[in-house]
Design brief:
Helices cover 19% and strands 33% of the residues. By secondary structure, the protein is α+β, with helices and mostly antiparallel strands.
Length: 132
């Protein structure tokens, strides 16, 4: 039996977006994330397949990175009709309840509807949606 892979952390998670610039701007203004890099290619490096894309990376703090792909030649993205909207989400951590309430106020001040805080027994959460 071989030893298990020794993971140190998640490098990044990647999602699809409609517009890379609008997505980067939204995450910067709403959540204070810093744009770190972007690259565009015509061919997928892993497969060699022709499929132009823009790939952006945003710093979430604490060594965490979130990435997005803009895929202009692919059909418009949709939602999984078999999965409720509340199931698929990204959760970010703040230092304490005061920081959570301040984040909620900041997000609402930008005209975004926020649900919560919701108490889950071990932590509290707020919920809102990225329109991109």
């Amino acid at each position: 039996m071989t030893a298990p892979v020794a993971l140190s952390r998640i490098h990044h998670v990647a999602y699809r977006c409609k517009d890379a610039k609008a997505t980067a701007d939204w995450y910067a203004s709403v959540l204070g994330m810093e744009f770190t890099t972007a690259f565009a290619e015509d061919h997928v490096p892993s497969t060699g397949e022709y499929d132009p894309y823009m790939h952006i990376f945003l710093d979430c703090g604490g060594g965490n990175v979130i990435a997005f792909f803009e895929l202009p030649n692919q059909p418009e993205m949709g939602k999984d009709p078999n999965t409720p909207a509340w199931v698929q989400h990204i959760a970010f951590e703040v230092s304490d309840l005061d920081a959570l309430l301040a984040a909620k106020a900041h997000i609402e001040a930008q005209g975004i509807d926020v649900v919560g805080p919701t108490f889950h027994g071990i932590f509290r959460s707020i919920y809102f949606f990225d329109p991109n």
